[in-house]
Amino acid sequence: MTKKKSSSSNLKAWIDAKKRFRLSSKHIQMAKELGMNPKKLGGLANHKQEPWKDPLPVFIEKIYLKQFGRDEP
Length: 73
What we know:
Blueprint: H1 2-20, H2 25-34, H3 41-44, H4 56-68
Helix pairs in contact: 2-4
């Protein structure tokens, strides 16, 4: 039964990340396939304080394209 708890908490973490960073379902799917941790997305997010960083959805798309060679999951 511990698997059920961990999967539900993991799902909740992804839902919270989707709301917090305003990501689409497509971006969440890409991030999951890349093996990203939903709790660590805050460090990658650009809060308009770091102009050299891409916004998080654009960053995820670039990394996904580089890793898998396609632009959609």
